[in-house]
Specification:
- The protein has 8 helices and 11 strands.
- The protein is of the alpha/beta class and 259 residues long.
- It folds into 2 domains: 1-81 and 212-239, Response regulator (Rossmann fold), CATH 3.40.50; 83-211, 3-Layer(aba) Sandwich (Rossmann fold), CATH 3.40.50.
- The protein has a 7-stranded mixed sheet, with helices on both faces.
- Helix 1 crosses helix 8 (214-226), helix 4 packs parallel to helix 5 and helix 6 crosses helix 7.
- It is elongated and about 55 Å long.
- The model has no long low-confidence stretch (mean pLDDT 91).
- InterPro entries: LacI/GalR-like_sensor, Peripla_BP_I.
- Residues 92-226 form the Transcriptional regulator LacI/GalR-like sensor domain.
- Keywords: DNA-binding, Transcription, Transcription regulation.
Length: 259
């Protein structure tokens, strides 16, 4: 997403200043204050916290667009996909394969997007009358190290037959931990993930993953700031499921389903 935003901003004669809070809420506030003191033309903001610093930004008068799931009560413009539906569909894909024991590696439980992804996973299991095993919910941060450590924890007990990692970085860490134990994907543990990039297609095995139309979302965010009039807008884009080899398939693209 950052690359797409940089490209779209540059095409409009703008420069994107990138700030990475690294899942640290205090660092996030520092970055926002720094950007506001620089009197930037606008902010494209994705928060590590359930309660982002929207009031701080809005009090400054700086245009702001959120790129993530936010509390519906927040009066802020948002660009997003339906993360619950996406999580439901990728989990259903595993169920359609015949997998019944399906675990999840998720982000911090207090984050709204984590809650959406967990709920989508739960709904898919419930609709197929499958057991939701609380011991197969592994919360960690959205990094390779997080996915690696969560998988190591999982392997201390009886592992599920399939796993849904809620972002690509977690999935890559998971692959490393499984390989260290001599476990193959998908032969021993099937794996799917959310929010993948083009890199997932070049992994071995290629990852079955939910992908977002990042180019269109980036263009919409830049246009929203460029044409800012203060009106709150919420734009939802369709995701798609890119089927790779990590679930047991040969690879193809699937459009969103409806529940």
């Amino acid at each position: 997403m950052a690359h797409a935003l940089q490209r779209e901003a540059f095409s409009d004669g703008k420069v994107l200043l990138l700030g990475d809070a690294g899942d640290n809420s205090g660092r996030e506030r520092e970055l926002i204050n720094n950007m506001l003191h620089r009197q930037v033309d606008g902010l494209i903001y994705t928060s590590v916290d359930r309660h982002p610093y929207i009031e701080l930004i809005q009090e400054s008068g700086t245009p702001c667009v959120m790129l993530d799931r936010v509390d519906p009560g927040l009066n802020v413009s948002v660009i997003q996909v339906d993360e619950q539906l996406a999580a439901w569909q990728v989990t259903k894909h595993l169920i359609d394969h015949g997998y019944r024991d399906i675990g999840i590696i998720c982000g911090p439980r207090e984050m709204l997007n984590t809650q959406d992804r967990i709920r989508g996973w739960q709904l898919a299991l419930e609709e197929s009358s499958l057991i939701i095993n609380p011991s197969w919910i592994f919360s960690t941060n959205y990094t390779r190290a997080g996915g690696y450590e969560a998988t190591k924890r999982m392997l201390q007990g009886k592992p599920p037959r399939a796993l849904f990692a809620t972002n690509e970085q977690q999935a890559l860490g998971c692959l490393r931990a499984l390989a260290e134990q001599g476990l193959r994907v998908p032969q021993d543990v099937a794996l799917v993930c959310f929010n993948a990039t083009q890199e997932s297609a070049y992994n071995v095995p290629s990852l079955t993953a939910v992908r977002q139309p990042v180019d269109k979302m980036a263009r919409a965010a830049i246009d929203m700031l460029k044409n800012w009039d203060g009106e709150v807008r919420r734009v939802e884009f369709e995701f798609f499921l890119r089927v790779g080899e990590s679930c047991g398939c040969q690879g193809h693209e699937v459009q969103p389903e409806t529940r």
